[in-house]
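Good morning C.,

I know you're traveling, so I'll keep this short. The sequence:
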Amino acid sequence: MQKPIEDTTKLLLQTEEEVFKKLVPTDHAFRKLRKLIHFGKLTRPLKSLYSELGQSGIAIEKGFKALLVQFWEDYSDREMENAVRENIAIRWFCGFGLTDTTPDHSYFGKLRKRIGPERLADMFNAVNAILQKKGLFGNVFTFIDASSIVSKTALWEERDEAIKDGEEKLNNANVEEYAADPDARWGAKGKDKIWYGYKRHHSVDMRFGLINKLCVTPANVLDFQVINNICPKQGMVFCDKLYDCKKVNLALKANNCFSGVIMKNNNTMKNRGLDSWRSKIRMPFEGNFSKLRKRTKFKTQPKVFFQCTFEAIVHNLKKAITVLPLKTV
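The tokens, ready to paste straight into the viewer:
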């Protein structure tokens, strides 16, 4: 009858790190992630966001890792509050001890605002630089495409309000005056796919499918109009028919890239056999977009860009710990 008491006593005498070592599996994704990324170095530029004076709060390294987990698991702020408090693996990964006080839900929104989209873009580039050294970027073939992000599915109340004010209808010319998200717009791909929100434009390296560049625009911005923002500096670039235009061709030449654009049917230079090969080459990487969130978490374009950038960081890190063996992570 003394054995349970003895086991409990032994557990209490162990250090926290020994306890975490037993409770968090050796092959857990967060263990691989901590071996892959030195988060102390990665978050060093963010330390300037906090003053050295006054009462000390949660270290920025812990906060950033908590945000990473939030986007990794697609948690809301309240779900993240519960997860970091109750989930042993998350508590260990973020750097909180067994008895440490963890942040409440309001902390995560404040931290996102403090970091902002520009600093997060720098973090995204820093993570990619680490993965580049690991050999995960080929810089030979690149896949470029855009996908929709829905801000709101129906705007009937906003439409009624616009008509009440004398507008003929609610459209992209006046929607910012009535909708809660002033930056979102209607976009369309063909006759059947129409949505209100944004577009996520991605440049994907085709060695392992990692995202190397991205930008976010209102949904009414045409895909080819942002080619200069996401075009690589070398290699062959694969795109669909929407990119078969003069602007894209000029951007590719200016960046020393070769065209892998599928040509439109009315293009006199179209080679169906070549375009069929291009389609097969790019097909495996179209699935990148299917795994990303289809709805916005936030309102306004800067916040949606923050969401998409963090999702891109998570996407690349998930790929990295899958591709790299544990011992070399």
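Safe travels,
E.
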